[in-house]
């Protein structure tokens, strides 16, 4: 890389940090959506049992 290493390595590090952040936000959003789905299923079961 020679003299360009000072520019290339920070870009690699930035990409790794960005991908890790995106992965974490996707994972937390999936957990939240799954939890909400389970709550909605539970509410639906309660409504079905009332009939």
How would you summarize the topology of this molecule?
Layout: H1 5-50
- Number of domains in the coordinates? 1
Fraction in helix: over 70%
Taking the alpha carbons of the first and last residues, their distance comes to 71 Å
In this structure, how is the largest beta sheet organized? none
Structural class: mainly alpha
Identify the quaternary structure here: single chain
Using DSSP, what is the number of strands?
0
Average of per-residue pLDDT values: 95
Low-confidence segments, ≥5 residues, pLDDT <50? none
SSE sequence, one letter per element: H
Which word captures the global form? rod-shaped
Beta fraction:
under 5%
Compute the number of helices: 1
Determine Rg (CA atoms, Å): 22 Å
Tell me about this structure:
By secondary structure, this protein is mainly α. The chain contains 1 helix and no strands. It has one helix spanning 5-50. The protein is rod-shaped and about 75 Å long. The mean pLDDT is 95.
What is this entry, summarized?
This protein has 51 residues and is mostly helical.
What structural keywords apply?
mainly alpha, 1 helix, 51 residues
């Amino acid at each position: 890389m020679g003299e360009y290493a000072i520019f290339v390595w920070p870009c690699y590090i930035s990409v790794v940090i960005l991908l890790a952040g995106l992965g974490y936000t996707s994972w937390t959003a999936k957990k939240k959506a799954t939890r909400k789905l389970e709550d909605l299923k539970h509410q639906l079961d309660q409504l079905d049992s009332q009939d």
